[in-house]
Amino acid sequence: RNQSSHSRHSLNSTTRMIMMHHRKTPSSLLALFLFLLYSSSYIISVVSITSYEYIATAAASNTTFPAGFAWGTATASYQVEGGWLEGGRGLTIWDAFSHTPNRVLNNETGDVADDHYHLWKNDIELMKSMGLKNYRMSIAWSRILPAGTGNPNPAGVAFYNSLIDGLVAAGITPWVTLYHWDLPLALQMEQNGWLNPNISNIFANYAKVCFETFGDRVKHWITINEPWCVSVLGHETGVFAPGHTLALGVEAYTVTHNIILAHAKAVNVYRTLFKPTQKGVIGITLNNDWKIPRTQAQADIDAQNRALEFFCGWFADPIYFGDYPQSMRRLVGSRLPNFTAAEVALVKGSNDFFGLNHYTTQLVFNVPPQPNTPSWTNDQNVGEAMDPSWNTTLNGWAIVPMGLYNILKYIHNRYHGPIIYLTENGCAQDGSTNPLEDTKRIDFLRAYMTAAHQAISEGVHLEGYFVWSLMDNFEWASGYGTRFGIHHVDYSTLARTPKASATWYTQVMKHNDPNFDKEE
Predict the structure, then answer these.
(1) Is 424 a catalytic residue?
(2) What is the DSSP string of 180-217?
(3) Which terminus of the chain, N or C, has less C-beta within 10 A?
(4) Are 204 and 265 in contact (CB under 8 A)?
(5) What is the pLDDT of residues 31-60, one digit of tens each?
(6) Strands (E), 227-339
(7) Opening angle at CA 426, ends 20 and 488, nearest 5
């Protein structure tokens, strides 16, 4: 799962949020809110985009999702596959990073992970047993092209052909991500990875191989997963591979620029050469936290706008509008790359859908400029904080279902109503005590799904929801101690066991409703 700056969501915590901000709410409205709070079984808290005030909204008694809504689960190649030296697979930057001491918690690696490389048939049976119809996976670039370029690796092609064929035979639709952070190590060592302007052409060639090889069965493509993590965590804070920290305020912007061009060139290849016959769709997945101004001061409201533009707009604005947000142009200046006219024509409109990964929310506030210490973080002039009333997951991310509602509304309004797929949402817990009784995860998922339904009821074109994750796995720099899976993995035996959340999610998908067990 991504490591962006990200217990149970209870009625009591919702009450505390309302009371915490009661000074901004007329007493008559507060009384109405409290009445709704205690008269409804399901409560989500939302933030009005226009007023930025807390509003408690009782979920509609009917939270049935639209017919045809795509329910699914998600994984990623490095996190589940293992088989790191098998089948002709080339090394990746995460192989190098995780084998470097003290880069990953407990010096753990993805060498074996969940051994999905050998156990994929068992995993498809897991999916079938829970009635899963959509599965988001990623292809390991270095299994297909071990050095990142050259001729396809037959063993790697055969592995993914078997996996995709198995999914289709089981009635499960594959949603395939081309890049989920495991860059071939040869490209990093020999060509400077995502800092090389030519990486966009190299990626487009890799994408073409995948479209040619798998596109007769794969109709849902995601070019790149959470590029923010590649840019900021990989090339500024250094907590992700390749671990760069020296060129603050420079590398992250360069990497993002090259990623956006790589995405657009891959989309152009698909639309030009394959979409007319394969008739699939293609987009990018962006991780976006919601941001709430800490106070109603205009400076903090302006800080919220900047924070959202530096996070969401940094990637989405070029794709939907053709350039970076003006706030970034003003604050980053010459360190922010420019698109040529030809690149604008290529990038703008290069999304059939908006892939969204969402987990958490922060309070934000204005801070003075720090011109002598440029970085993506400092360039925004924004500070972050937590509301003390918010509960958190195991890894410290705030549980704020209203944040999902609001980021969905924000994307809908800013980008003129795109089709959105929630390609990841989930909850980290540990597996030390009663690992199969993950009731807090059920509470989390129910609350976030209810918030998503609220957005749909207000016109947001959300058409799918993918739980992260199908099973516990290697969680990047957090190793194996953080568990997001709805199936428990015993890492000593690799046995998979459904958690309570898997059983619950089966019923959600069957009834098309996260509150199937509570509505009369």
Answers:
(1) yes
(2) SS--BHHHHHHH-GGGSTTHHHHHHHHHHHHHHHHTTT
(3) C
(4) yes
(5) 333 323 323 333 333 333 332 223 334 344
(6) 281-287, 290-293
(7) 130
Give the H or E element holding residue 467: strand 462-468
Judge whether 238 and 245 are in contact, CB under 8 Å.
Answer: yes
- Rounded CA-CA distance 354/373 in Å is 33
Q: How far is CA 180 from the centre of its chain?
A: 10
Question: Tell me, what amino acid is at 304?
Answer: Q
- Pull the structure tokens for residue 275: 């979409």
User: Among residues 191, 192, 224, which one has the least CA distance to residue 206?
Assistant: 224
Cβ partners under 8 Å of residue 422, min gap 6: 356, 357, 358, 404, 452, 462, 464, 465, 466
Residue 384's CB is within 10 A of a number of other CB atoms, namely 17
Helices (H) and strands (E) in the chain, counts: 21, 15
Q: Would you say 411 and 356 are in contact if contact means Cβ atoms under 8 Å apart?
A: yes
384 is catalytic: no
pLDDT tens, position by position, 408-453: 999 999 999 999 999 999 999 887 789 999 999 999 999 999 999 9
Given the residues 81, 236, 251, 424, select the one marked as catalytic. 424
Model confidence at 287, pLDDT cuts 50, 70, 90, reads very high
Q: What is the pLDDT of residue 238?
A: 98
- Which whole number is the average pLDDT over 344-368? 98
**Separation of alpha carbons 429 and 264, rounded Å:** 36
User: Coil, helix or strand for 287?
Assistant: strand
Residues 6+ away with beta carbon under 8 Å from 461: 412, 417, 418, 419, 420
| Marked catalytic residue, from 226, 309, 343, 475 | 226
Tens digits of per-residue pLDDT, 55-72?
334 344 699 999 999 999
Residues paired with residue 290 on neighbouring β-strands, in sequence order: 361
